[in-house]
Amino acid sequence: MNKKLAAALSGGAVLVLTLSGCSDDSDDKVNDWAKKVCDQVQPQLQKIANANAAIQEQTADNSKPADVQKTDSAAFQQISQAYKALGAAVDSAGPPPVDDGETTQKEAVKELNASSTAYANLRTKVDALDTGDQAKFADGLKGIADELNKISTNGDQALKKLQSGKVGTAMSKQKGCQKPTASTSPAAAPPATASDDASKSTSPTPSKAEKE
Fold first, then answer.
1. When comparing pLDDT for 204 and 43, which is higher?
2. For the chain, does the N or the C end have fewer beta carbons within 10 angstroms?
3. CA-to-CA distance for 190 and 197, rounded, in angstroms?
């Protein structure tokens, strides 16, 4: 079942990761704005990649529900914090120097904050799952995977707009906005919190019901 969570995360909503530069028609002001954002973005993208990797590692059929719960909870918390920081990064950079830049910025920040809240809610739901009953736990994970798919596919119009035109081209050229490679230890990125400590345990997990 955790395989569905991993798959949903892989197609996840960090649209900054999908940037690809083409022409070099962005001006200096736009490039400066993109650098300001992307310099702050990279650590957060790394946290999301690491959290995704942690869940990916929890796909063994002999995994215990309690281990799956612990890892998934920590991963969702990590992703939630990362999205909140991404929103703060775009907010602090100010409007991009393009037409309708202020509206584009505000809507993107709103979506990033909404994603942060959504992942925090998923963490709460994972924490509430009954690990003593494999069947119920698998059903609960299925529901969470379905919600994760919705988060990944809905409400990204503002982010797409932010990454279009000159701004998107400028951001795609910044190393900080390019897709990072997950570290060997997915737990390496999170800040020190009790829940984040859980991400350090990336032993194989999900229940047999995960196959569903």
1. 43
2. C
3. 8
State the Cα torsion 94-96-97-101 to the nearest 10°: -100
d(CA 180, CA 43) in angstroms, rounded, equals 9
pLDDT tens-digit map of 143-157: 998 888 887 766 567
Residue 174 has pLDDT above 60, yes or no: yes
CA distance 100 to 102: 6
Helices of type H across 96-178: 101-127, 134-153, 157-162, 165-172
Pick the closest to residue 12 from 154, 139, 164 (CA basis). 154
Distance CA 28, CA 118 (A): 35
Tokens 């197609």: give the residue.
Answer: 11
Mean pLDDT of 7-29: 54
Cβ-in-10-Å burial (0-12, 13-18, 19+) of 175 comes to: exposed
